[in-house]
Backbone:
């Protein structure tokens, strides 16, 4: 990941990460999903799906997450 990007959300459910990413993008926040879930090991060793935003949009993204409690893990 390039510098100046910060992780703001982590889940072991990829679909939830996609929902959070979409919500952030609707509000103009550039969000990147890093999928560390290995589908071949999903049953026994779930990975994490992580959402990153540029640090200049971190406060806005965190505020949006807090305003939408259904997005919390």
Residues:
């Amino acid at each position: 990941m390039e510098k100046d990007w910060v992780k703001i959300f982590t889940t072991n459910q990829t679909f939830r990460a996609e929902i959070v990413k979409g919500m952030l993008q609707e509000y103009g926040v550039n969000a990147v999903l890093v999928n560390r879930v290995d589908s071949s090991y999903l049953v026994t060793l779930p990975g994490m799906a992580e959402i990153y935003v540029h640090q200049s949009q971190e406060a806005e993204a965190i505020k949006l997450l807090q305003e939408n409690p259904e997005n919390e893990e």
Remarks:
- Strands lie at 5-11, 31-35, 49-54.
